[in-house]
Amino acid sequence: MRWIDLAVIIVYLIGITWFGARFRETQKSLKDYFLGGRNAPWWAIGFSIVSAETSTLTIIGTPAIAFNGNFGFLQVVFGYFLARVLISVLFLPHYFRGEMYTAYELMKRRFGDRIRKLTAGSFLVLRALAEGVRVFAISIVVSIILGTGDMLSILVIVLLTLFYTFEGGMTAVIWTDVIQMVLYVFGAVVSLVVILQAIPGGWPHVAEVAGAAGKFQVFDFRFSPTAEFFTRAYSFWGGLIGGLFLTTASHGTEQLMVQRLLSARTEGESRAALFASWIVIFVQFSMFLVIGAMLFVFYKDNGMAMPRIADQIYPRFIWERLPVGIAGLIMAAILAAAMSNLSAALNALASTTIMDFYKPLRPNHTEDHYLGMARKTTIVWGAVLMGIGVLARQWGSVLEAGLGIASIVYGSLLGVFLLGLLTKRATETGAMIGMSAGLLIMLYVKLGTSIAFTWYVLIGSSVTFVTGLLASLLFSSDSSQRSASHS
Fold it and tell me: How far apart are CA 487 and CA 484, in angstroms?
């Protein structure tokens, strides 16, 4: 009866592609293609932010974290909330001062064109690498569905997503995000019910076994100024500080998220979308952690061997244990999260390429020319992400690999943005030196130490900020300094 599940998945893929492509008629300008014409309601943007934060990595990686450990990951989510407060106070007022298409236009306004290109280029590298990991995560799911690791199956998902993103731009991204988010949250709820029914004794038995194994532990307040403290990813301090800096960087400086915030009608609606998204994120992560704890009990009760790859635990249970039709629906939900992230990444990569690199070099073309180039650039980035996805199979846990890659560059991005927003004496030369120093230090931290990824952004942003400020004082005669953001 697997053909019923496959039919459900195929119908979903065709339906969501058709739905997204229907928005082509509304794409008349770059504002339409990259910002959705600034017509989307705040709640839709909020759901879109959730979809951007939630990927296949989250859906298959979070249950694996609880399966192997506990609920300590929620400590990072509390940091996400503090970050939203900081972004709403510090970043949003600057982004809504004038019309911006990308986050890096703010850097040009504050410093100059060189730092704009450096920050935009860093984003392109960061997002391409991190999204490549997410493309690989799709292969984990598809290999379970089809019993093969054939990359041709992944190509189908990428091409379908590329098609509706190419056609419908940011409008298609936002509204398909809404549908896809509803679908995978519904899938998680159905999974909870079905897994619970598969465990004799129900929730009381889950609570007893998982509780005895320490699965429900959220907080780890242990503090000691030793190396071991900085190698624990999910301590209270590491999680709270790491979540704060990670999300401030991702939502405040990375085009993937900033593009959504800029798509809101007003600064107030952008702020409402930002905070509403955290509520959904908290509930969502909690559900996936509970699923992981329940699967731990299920495996323990049945004496089952753990899959070779921990990230296969949840999708394999769905495909092998859930009723026909329901399994297909939830697998479609997981693919929905993948397509949602992929479409957003493609549009963000294209917008940064066109607005921060191509258009400044060729400023005298028509709007139709730029719109055509935006679509062509979307196709190029689709091919790049496919290539990186093939290489990402050797990078370990998909969730932590994705966050780790992002955190290397996030520190430098956040550091240089804070340098521009919080200081008046910083210069463009100082900012570039600081950002370069931050990137070099983070490469060493990633490759040469065992420091947990939750500390990466704090380290990178601190090095970037301090080095940039000191370098600015040494090169204070830099004539390219701008202070428009402080006027």
Answer: 5
The whole-angstrom distance between residue 423's C-alpha and the CA centroid of its chain comes to 29
Q: What is the pLDDT of residues 464-482, one digit of tens each?
A: 999 999 999 887 654 444 4
Q: Which pLDDT tens digit goes with each residue over 379-408? A: 999 888 888 777 766 555 544 555 566 667
**Tokens at 266, concatenated:** 């007003």
Q: Which residue type, as a one-letter code, is found at position 405?
A: I
Which of 224, 233, 290, 215 has the alpha carbon at shortest distance from 75?
233
Q: Cα–Cα distance between 58 and 52 in angstroms, integer?
A: 11
Taken in order 116, 162, 92, 100, the sign of the CA dihedral is positive
70 Ramachandran zone, left/alpha/beta (phi>0; psi -120 to 50): beta
Identify the segments of the chain with pLDDT beneath 70: 1, 55-57, 139-141, 143-154, 223-234, 306-311, 392-407, 476-487
Number of Cβ atoms within 10 Å of the Cβ of 201: 13
Q: Which two tokens stand for residue 277?
A: 């998204």
The residues near 205 (Cβ < 8 Å, ≥ 6 apart) are 199, 297
Q: How far is 238 from 218, CA to CA, in rounded Å?
A: 13
Tell me the whole-structure pTM to 2 decimals.
Answer: 0.80
Place of tokens 């290109």: 117
Please tell me the distance from the alpha carbon of residue 78 to that of residue 261, in angstroms, as a whole number: 21
**Structural domains of the chain in order of their starting residue, each with its CATH number:** 2-398 (1.20.1730.10)
Give the helix ranges, DSSP H, for 305-363. 313-321, 326-353, 359-361
Per the CB < 8 A criterion, the answer to whether 238 and 449 are in contact is: no
Separation between Cα atoms, residue 33 and residue 12, nearest integer Å: 24
